[in-house]
Design a protein that fits this description.
A: about 650 residues; alpha/beta; Rossmann fold; 6-stranded parallel β-sheet; B: about 160 residues; alpha+beta; Alpha-Beta Plaits; 2 domains; 5-stranded antiparallel β-sheet; 4 helices
Chain lengths: ~650, ~160
């Protein structure tokens, strides 16, 4: 850890000023490529533009209206194209590439269904502020709006889920559009940008002139934080006795880890991280309390509730973090630092709002605090938190579990133990396994834990893992999946196999949609409506069908060995881990409850047991008479009619009568 | 509370739908809308009237600011801005009652733009309260049809 802090300090000594111009500049040659000034087709200019932006990998799927672009791609030495098996997979791969590198991800698809298949991927990136440039083929300009074959208004369809979009109108604006798209996608609060290219433009001749600069008068994101506000924030930090750093995804995007570590250590401020902020603060630092929110540790949630100052760093007070907003952190003042002014005051009023790039703002805060000679005053606060930490651990080895079953928490702890945090990337799907991974996979660095936070997209994790593995060939990439999520994009196993991507998939296989099943158990009287997936396919055979390696384990003693075997394999590998469907994710804050109203936290004062467990909900009788159903709907009036003493129809008779009258 | 939003945007296809989509997506009804190019032909002005509480209104304007196509947003709700709408009324007017209607129109400085055998069409401009007054008076005669533009608004010169 000391190494990390000192390297963080080194990084701090030579702060590189981040501005929209520096962040959004072309990563490639820009105007200085050899294609500059040459005559070429629009499609070739698309490829040349991507090369000028320094793109090395694109993900996609060809089709009729994208065929010219794909023809031009055939000649590119710089661009490696990864053929997905579904356009949604392609966009998630580009997303995984972007999240794991910080560089914009690029996807190319065709018009109509190709374009509509990207919508979920684009929305996923939008919710988590991931820079993407999505290029869609479009029917020729002359037939736009005529319901021609494979036409869809993709600019219209994606409008609510893109940062910006373009429908190319002529070759004249092609290169400036690409420059603007990359600039917009990567600067300010990043996000997906869509470029819709009619195929006749791709087929028209033009001269390739790539610009280095952009001039969008209406788009000037604020990078520099207001100095007065920074001084006001310093006063709050100096006065606070119970401060808390609340670290979100903005910290990853802004590359502000070193600054957060520095601030936390110099003022001895404890840290909680959101799902998107995981990795932005090393878990090995005792100041890091880890996950907060619905499935966060009880001590993190207590710290949030009892804090007198919350320093929100690129976090947005999501409902999954705050619980019931009117009971959230009732005594805390808030310093809210975000590059997106719309996030400030959206959920929680901020006493000191600071709009700006987190890295620069924190640098300003730190130097002001140093100038003021501020010193930490949090000894009592940290002691109190450590008491909670000892009393309510997030997991306890002594928990009584059925010894014959594999316990999901222990699988995660074992996987985390075997992974090198500096050389591995963990990607998750969405559901129970995601929360277990969030709780128990230890991360030390940014961009090593990728998960769909805002949209919660099942089917995101596996293709995103492929994208991350392609972007980081030296890293061990593990996708933690559920049996439900994995089946949403399992066709991408072909992509991994054909491209030789040794991605690892660990399925926490409970033969059900675990998170919905958990809610049905807790809040819907155990009425497991459509959440049971049995019989699942044989995942090992599926792996073999795609020329993967695979193994299924069912006993706890196999776990360590199976994980080691998986991680050692040079090939893509699927490990199917059988767990019980009765395993639930705890601790949990029920939706709509206050953040400190935690169910199922361990309280060692009582013993190694989970406390405040919800009362077992009344199992509803599976069959009900039609009368009882109507009673429920109308408040019992049906049966309560005193004069009505006639014999009632049984369900069987009722069904028979219905059948007979047909 | 009703807010009058004046939004300066790029004069490009699809921009209006970005602006209105953003407002309606958040569950707010646009009560009135007008759009037209401004002194710089590459720009347009959207004037919209939205009914929203202050917190929601702040969120709407912040989100609108995030649209790449939006240059500037001015709130013309409370600063005594000049507001105008244009309304066309087609009013029942038997020949013997025409004069009354013409007289009312004159008082309101409205113009008769068409005369039918049993109807008059009147063009009126003004702020909402004036047009409401005129509409109430015409109701007594029977209004066959009303067509109105959205509200347009401009800040007063006090600061210039």
């Amino acid at each position: 850890m000391t190494d990390k802090i000192s390297s963080a300090n080194d990084a701090f000594k030579s702060p590189a000023k981040r501005t929209a111009t520096s962040v959004g500049a072309p990563r490639g040659g820009g105007s200085r490529t050899e294609k500059q000034g040459k005559r070429m087709l629009g499609a070739e200019a698309v490829v040349a533009s991507l090369e000028a932006e320094g793109v090395d990998t694109v993900f996609g799927y060809p089709g009729g209206q994208a065929i010219k672009i794909y023809d031009a791609l055939y000649d590119s030495h710089q661009l490696k194209h990864v053929l997905a098996r579904h356009e949604q997979g392609a966009v998630h791969m580009a997303d995984g590439y972007a999240r794991s590198t910080g560089r914009p991800g690029v996807a190319i698809v065709t018009s109509g269904p190709g374009a509509t298949n990207t919508v979920t991927g684009i929305a996923t990136a939008y919710m988590d502020s991931v820079p993407l440039v999505v290029i869609t083929g479009q029917v020729p300009r002359a037939v736009i709006g005529t319901d021609s074959f494979q036409e869809s208004d993709i600019v219209g369809i994606t409008m609510p889920v893109v940062k910006h979009s373009f429908l190319l109108q002529s070759t004249d604006e092609l290169t400036s559009t690409f420059r603007e798209a990359f600039h917009i996608a990567t600067t300010g609060r990043p996000g997906p940008v869509l470029i819709d290219i009619p195929s006749d433009i791709a087929g028209s001749e033009m001269v390739f002139e790539y610009p280095d600069e952009v001039n969008i008068p209406s788009y000037k994101p604020t990078y520099r934080g207001n100095a007065k506000q920074i001084r006001a924030a310093c006063r709050l930090i100096e006065d606070a006795r119970r401060p808390l750093l609340y670290v979100g995804g903005g910290c990853v995007i802004s590359d502000a880890s070193a600054e957060v570590i520095r601030l936390a250590n110099m003022m001895q401020i404890p840290v909680v991280t959101t799902l998107m902020g995981k990795g932005a603060y090393p878990i090995s630092d005792p100041l890091n309390l880890g996950p907060v929110g619905m499935h966060g540790a009880k001590y993190s949630n207590l710290a949030m509730t009892e804090a007198d100052l919350i320093i929100a760093c690129g976090a947005r007070f999501s409902d999954r973090v705050t619980g019931r907003p009117d009971k959230f952190a009732p005594n805390a003042k808030v310093i809210h630092i975000d590059i997106d002014p719309a996030e400030i005051g959206k959920i929680r009023e901020a006493q000191v709002p600071i709009v700006g790039d987190l890295k620069g703002v924190l640098q300003g805060l730190i130097s002001q605090l140093e100038k003021d000679g501020a010193s930490p005053r949090t000894e009592a606060w940290l002691a109190e938190i450590n008491q909670w930490r000892d009393r309510y651990p997030i997991y306890h080895a002594g928990l009584k579990d059925d010894e014959s079953q594999i316990v999901p928490e222990r699988v995660m702890i074992e996987l985390s133990r075997q992974l090198d945090p500096d050389a591995s990337i963990v990607v998750t799907e969405v559901g129970q396994h995601q929360m277990w991974a969030h709780q128990f996979i230890d991360r030390e660095r940014v961009r090593t834990f990728l998960s769909s936070g805002g949209l919660g997209t099942m089917g995101f994790g596996f293709p995103a893992a492929i994208g991350a593995a392609i972007a980081n060939p030296e890293a061990q990439v593990v996708c933690i999946a559920g049996d439900g999520s994995f089946q949403m994009n399992s066709q991408e196993m072909a992509t991994a196999a054909i491209n030789g991507v040794p991605v690892k998939v660990l399925i926490m296989d409970n033969r059900c949609l675990g998170m919905v099943h958990q809610w049905q158990k807790l809040f819907y009287k155990e009425r497991y409506s459509e959440t049971l997936l049995e019989p699942n396919p044989d995942f090992v055979k599926l792996a073999q069908a795609y020329a993967w390696e695979g193994r299924r384990i069912t006993r706890p003693e196999e776990v360590a060995d199976a994980i080691a075997e998986m991680l050692a394999s040079p090939k893509p590998y699927l490990l199917d881990v059988a767990i019980s469907r009765d395993q639930n994710v705890y601790p949990m804050v029920a939706p709509g409850s206050a953040l400190d109203d935690v169910m199922g936290a361990i309280d060692v004062a009582v013993g190694a047991v989970r406390t405040d467990m919800p009362a077992p909900s009344q199992a509803a009788s599976p069959k009900k008479s039609p009368c009882a159903t109507i009673d429920e709907q109308f408040g019992g009036r049906w049966e309560a009619e005193p004069g009505d003493t006639a014999e009632r129809l049984s369900l069987e008779d009722f069904e028979a009568e219905k059948g007979g009258s047909r | 509370m009703k807010h009058v939003l004046s939004v300066l945007v790029e004069n490009k296809p699809g921009v209006l739908s970005r602006v209105t989509g953003l407002v309606s997506r958040r569950g707010f009804n646009i009560e009135s809308l007008s759009v037209g190019p401004v002194e710089d032909p590459t720009m347009s002005r959207v004037t919209a009237v939205v009914d929203a509480d202050d917190v929601a209104y702040e969120q709407i304007t912040k989100q609108l600011h995030k649209l790449i196509s939006v240059h500037k947003i001015t709130d013309l709700t409370d600063d005594g801005a000049i507001e105008r709408e244009l309304v066309l009324f087609k009013v029942n007017a038997a020949p013997e009652r025409r004069n009354e209607i013409i007289e009312i129109s004159n008082i309101f400085r409205a113009k008769i733009v068409d005369v039918g055998r049993n109807s008059l069409t009147i063009e009126a401009t003004g702020d909402a309260s004036k047009l409401k007054g005129l509409e109430d008076l015409f109701r007594a005669y029977g209004i066959k049809e009303i067509v109105r533009t959205g509200k347009i608004a401009m800040s007063r010169n006090a600061k210039d």
